[in-house]
Design a protein that fits this description.
The chain has 272 residues and is mainly α. The protein has one domain. It contains 8 helices and no strands. Helix 1 runs antiparallel to helix 2 and helix 2 runs antiparallel to helix 7. It is rod-shaped and about 100 Å long.
Amino acid sequence: MIRSATTRSLVWCFLATALVACFLSLQPGVLWAQEGGAAPAETETDATHVLWWLIEVSGWIGLFILCLSFYFVAVVVQQFLELRSTVAAPPEILEECDRLIQEGNARDVVKLVEQDDSFFSRSLHAGLSELEYSVDEARDKLERTADASTINMEKKISILATIGTLGPMIGLLGTLKGMIRSFMAIAISGKNLEASEVAKGISEALVLTFEGVFLSIPAIFFYAMFRSRIAKISIETTMLADDYFRAIVRMLKRPRTAAPSVAPSPAPKPAT
């Protein structure tokens, strides 16, 4: 049974969260293990202190960016699994269609593609279902169904473009929040200016800006890469479905071999 896209996204979000959490918890020990010794207590304390400092500085804006990053990882992994030529046009479906076409069994071809939910099967079934009206209308239906499948695939990756656009904007929001905090500390302190309070605001502004840009760069990259892959898969699968459609049309137009008819015997001539 094929799981829904939402279920897969939730599963990959959980796996991504678990992997990131394990990486953050094991990072100091792994680095020191590579050097051949145990991690000193002071180093572990410093690493933990820096981690908690980043969490504290990031605040709720950083938490939102972190949730977006988990969802981003889930979408990327899901699209890597789905945007493949073997998923758009399953080889076993193509082999079965070839066999049925060679046997001249168009009815079973229609039943086969009707039961499959791939890009190829949906497009071919849409064309074959309109074949009773005219070939031109059937091919038009095939192309329109292929276009609809392409739009559906592009809609799944549109969230990557949204993340790539929102990342810097969320980071800019953090920048404004941090600068407001710094100038507020300067305004309140008066003559007794506390550099630590000003530094907290500036560090918050820089950290949140970095997190937003760090999220948006890979999101834009994967969006462009998946758009290119979708265009390639769409063109190849549509042409493949059209080739099979043409083969079925030629098969249906092929005259069937009729059984040899027995010529009637000539009537006897009347006796003279």
